[in-house]
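To close the section, here is one more complete example, presented without commentary so you can practise reading it yourself. The ligand is flavin-adenine dinucleotide.
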Amino acid sequence: MNQTTAAVKEITCIADGVYSMWFRTEIAKEAKPGQFVMVNPRSEAHLLGRPISICEIDADRSLLRLVFRVVGYGTDELASSKTGDSFTILGPLGNGFDVSKAEKDSNVVLMGGGIGAPPILGLACALKAAGVQKITAVLGYRSREAGIFLKDEFENVADVVITTDDGSEGLKGNVVEALRAKDIAADIIYSCGPMPMLRAIKGFAEEKGIPAYISLEERMACGVGACLGCVVKTKDKDEHSHVNNTRICTEGPVFEAQEVDI
Ligand SMILES: Cc1cc2nc3c(=O)[nH]c(=O)nc-3n(C[C@H](O)[C@H](O)[C@H](O)COP(=O)(O)OP(=O)(O)OC[C@H]3O[C@@H](n4cnc5c(N)ncnc54)[C@H](O)[C@@H]3O)c2cc1C
Ligand code: FES
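Output:
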């Protein structure tokens, strides 16, 4: 983990309020899909870093891609930046997705909901590079009007199924409904998205008896395990603290769904 100054190489608006940003940083050399970075706002009035998942990694060129939705001060400041601006960032943080859990000939299903889709794209690229043959990405969005971002990039590495809340693109409904409606074979699931979606995936995985790895993107403060502001209840007791709690920022954000109480 490093704290470094990272320069903005490129920033583009890719959907309503959603931005894609490439940072030039040595953190790219250590990063893996599903990990995140803390981006510090430049204003001293805002002390806490903002956690943003790593969307894509170009280790050779020391580039990291982040895709984020503007919701408040920190993300608005990021969206307003220009090529050449610099930010202090800390990372890579968290455990990330374990690509080795997927067998090369298994049916791997990736599920991304809204702004949970970006880390799943980096994972899809890593799975493809590892030789996994059957990758299906089921991606849920609000509506066509709000933007079906990253779809083309997912199509380069996976079979893609789109759902929208209003049915304006793809199937109407959520990603788990799409999995059932299309009877998509799944030996393993990796997912990131809003909590109701992750709960539904946990239920689906339990019913089918398959492993599901979910990334929890709840609120964080320090991002490095110090404040206990991000704990989630676990099925088993932690072997050090002997309590049924774990920190999302350090032991997560990716957990096997049945291990956490969400
Ligand atoms: C591990 C992790 C990875 C993340 N990855 C991404 C990502 O790749 N792209 C992305 O757009 N966002 C991501 N987020 C969410 C992102 O961190 C927040 O949207 C951001 O910190 C908001 O900062 P802000 O200063 O713009 O808004 P603030 O002014 O801090 O908050 C504005 C509003 O957003 C709400 N909010 C803040 N954080 C969250 C959150 N984590 N979940 C839901 N609501 C929140 C607040 O309650 C408030 O209503 C991630 C969060 C975590 C914990
Ligand atoms: S955010 Fe501080 S311990 Fe996780």
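Once you have examined the tokens, check your reading against these statements. The pocket of FE2/S2 (inorganic) cluster (ligand 2) is lined by residues 220-223, 225-230, 247, 249 (CB under 6 Å). The helical segments are 73-79, 117-129, 151-155, 175-181, 195-208.
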